[in-house]
Design brief:
histidine kinase; EC 2.7.13.3; binds adenosine-5'-diphosphate; Beta-Lactamase; binds magnesium ion; five-stranded antiparallel β-sheet; alpha+beta; single chain; phosphoprotein; two-component regulatory system; rod-shaped
Length: 606
């Protein structure tokens, strides 16, 4: 220690020796350690006591030759600055240092040893390495990203990755030349810049989101969506961001939206009751479904379990079906079910279900409901009208059978009258009554017999009187009187007589049936002012037709009568149509009904 006591003389030097973070080692010419500072102790992990007097050996084997050369040079007075190399620690690990070697001289200038100063640069190296890595990582990311990446400042693009350039149809170099304004629709840059300022500066958000319509090199538009953040580039603020081409996404969205809209419209206007079910809960009910259930509107049904509207006897089956259909794209067959309506009634229905992939973003089940009530009723009615037509045919046969004995009866009555004295009055009555029976039977036959339409000119009053005489008996039984008011001139019309008779029978029968306690039927006929048509009205004083029936009149099987067919008015209006006429029904419930028929005379057509 005495050898280098002079180094330590100054407090100043001592302070540096003790506090400098660099490691300092002093060796003699034999390369034995004379001293190390605390920095060296910290750097290598040895204690000073362990090192002094020992040979200096902190070099990994593979660098020994390099070290030898360096020390030789130092011993010859050549100083070595900032040589980067590895040194060994006590624990065997290596530390990367920047090494400076200088010769140690005595007062006379003779070299007596070497001083080594080591600065730990492993952190710096690590940082440099990671910087390099990060940089290459980022540039790699940006270059290979499947999104546009840019740095923009002022009106220029400072950096654009190849993807962005390709998106715009420019080369990378061109991209850096082009004015930012030209990269989007006019006015958009100003809007985006203002938005960026507001979000980044005022609201202090880190990112700012934008949507622009980019303008490609060839002038075609491209929908872009992106994020951007504020960075400092070369001391000035710049925007770093990414953009994505969303043209396809937009188109997809639009076509999805379009098709969703279309489906919703289709569902809305489908002429069948339809409900959409999500997890057993009704999420949509169209108008007809609302009507079928008898709900006030759809909001009453939406949100409720479908089972609220299903007869409990059918609910398990329905749930099975719904649970199955949600896992397949196939629709179910129409399956019979019973629904509970709001008025407490149950109705027979058939239901078919299919899953729908995207109803407001959800997978739901669409169920079509078919109301079987009407069908069941019309099946019943068909059977009934079939029965009626069979009875009609039978009646025609029976009528035929009656006519022969009638002819005999009439002949013998006349014979008896000619032979008997007095009482001829009674024979006249009998003959008249027999004539009436004959007339009615004949009418019956012609009406019941199927026939092709046969047009001819007929007098309307004859037709009406024939009908009245058929219905008279029934009218008298019901205490109904039939009054006819014909204007002076009695029109003849070109018509199918039997068909018109059928019309009047239907209408007058309805009128009689409407007055169970009796009353009057008034039939009037008059020329229209144009003298080309005539107007016939048949008015009763009955109970009238309820509004809901009047609206449906003309449809088959609409009847309020237990034994009704609901066919009479439908057939009548068809017949009048065939005569190019009009039939109009007006009714005041409780006061009576008026049927008005307008028929063209059609005399020319004869
Ligand atoms: P049906 O007489 O077999 O019921 P219609 O077609 O002749 O069939 O009549 C249909 C329905 O119209 C009747 O059930 C009845 O409710 C109503 N209706 C028809 N005419 C009258 C009337 N003159 N007065 C009251 N209701 C009537
Ligand atoms: Mg009728």
């Amino acid at each position: 220690m005495d050898k280098h006591g002079h180094i330590m003389k100054h407090n100043f030097m001592e302070s540096i020796w003790n506090n400098i973070p660099d490691g300092i080692v002093v060796i003699d010419l034999d390369e034995n350690i004379l001293d190390v500072n605390p920095g060296f102790e910290a750097l290598h992990g040895w204690k000073r006591e362990e090192l002094i007097g020992r040979p200096c050996c902190f070099t990994p084997v593979h660098l020994l030759e390099e070290r030898r050369l360096m020390i030789e040079k130092a011993k010859h007075g050549e100083s070595l600055q900032c040589q980067e190399t590895f040194k060994l620690r006590k624990d065997g690990t290596m530390v990367y240092v920047s090494l400076t070697l200088t010769a140690l001289r005595d007062e006379n200038g003779n070299i007596i040893g070497v001083v080594g100063i080591e600065r730990d640069i492993s952190d710096r190296i690590k940082m440099e390495a990671s910087l390099f890595e990060a940089e290459s990582l980022y540039s790699h990311l940006a270059d290979s990203a499947l999104a546009g990446v840019f740095v923009g400042q002022g009106n220029r693009i400072l950096y654009a990755n190849p993807y962005l350039a390709a998106l715009y149809g420019y080369t990378n170099e061109e991209m850096l030349q082009v004015d930012l304004k030209k990269l989007m629709l006019p006015g958009e840059l100003e809007v985006v810049t203002r938005d960026a300022q507001v979000t980044l500066m005022d609201q202090k958000q880190i990112y700012f989101h934008f949507n622009i319509t980019g303008v490609k090199k060839d002038g075609s538009p491209v929908h872009l969506e992106g994020n951007s953040c504020l960075i400092s580039f070369q001391g000035k603020p710049a925007l770093l961001g990414t953009v994505q081409d969303i043209t396809i996404k937009k188109e997809k969205e639009r076509s999805l939206r379009d098709s969703a809209n279309m489906y919703q419209r289709i569902i809305k206007f489908l002429p069948e009751p339809i409900v959409l079910i999500d997890n057993g809960e009704i999420v949509y009910a169209n108008k007809l479904a609302v009507k079928l259930i008898g709900a006030a509107d759809d909001s009453e049904m939406v949100g409720r379990p479908i089972l609220d509207y299903v007869d409990p006897a059918y609910s398990d089956d329905l749930m099975d079906v719904l649970n199955k259909v949600i896992h397949t794209d196939d629709p179910t067959n129409f399956i019979e079910n019973k629904l509970l309506c709001n008025d407490g009634q149950t109705i027979d229905v058939e239901m078919s279900s299919i899953r729908i992939h995207n109803y407001r973003g959800k997978m739901v089940i669409l169920t079509v409901i078919r109301d079987l009530t009407d069908r069941k009723r019309s099946e019943e009615m068909l059977v009934r009208s079939e029965k009626l037509s069979v009875i009609g045919q039978l009646a025609a046969g029976v009528a035929h059978e009656i006519r022969n004995p009638l002819t005999a009866l009439k002949g013998f009555t006349q014979l008896l009258k000619s032979k008997a004295e007095g009482n001829s009055f009674y024979y006249d009555i009998m003959t008249n009554e027999l004539d009436r029976i004959n007339f009615i039977v004949n009418e019956f036959m012609t009406l019941a017999k199927p026939h092709f339409s046969k047009f001819s000119t007929r007098r309307l009053d004859h037709i009406l009187h024939a009908v009245i005489s058929i219905l008279e008996t029934q009218a008298i039984l019901m205490n109904v009187s039939i009054r006819t008011e014909f204007e002076n001139c009695i029109p003849s019309i070109y018509c199918d007589e039997n068909q018109l008779k059928q019309v009047f029978i239907n209408i007058i029968k309805n009128a009689i049936e409407a007055m169970p306690l009796g009353g009057q039927i008034t039939i009037t006929a008059a020329m229209e002012p144009d003298h080309e048509r005539m107007r016939l009205t048949i008015r009763d004083e009955g109970m009238g037709i309820p509004d809901e029936i009047i609206r449906q009149i003309g449809q088959p099987f609409i009847t309020t009568k237990e034994k009704g067919t609901g066919l009479g008015l439908m057939i009548s209006s068809r017949i009048i149509e065939q005569h190019q006429g009009l039939m109009n029904i007006s009714s005041v419930p409780g006061e009576g009904t008026t049927i008005e028929i307008i028929l063209p005379l059609n005399t020319e057509e004869q």
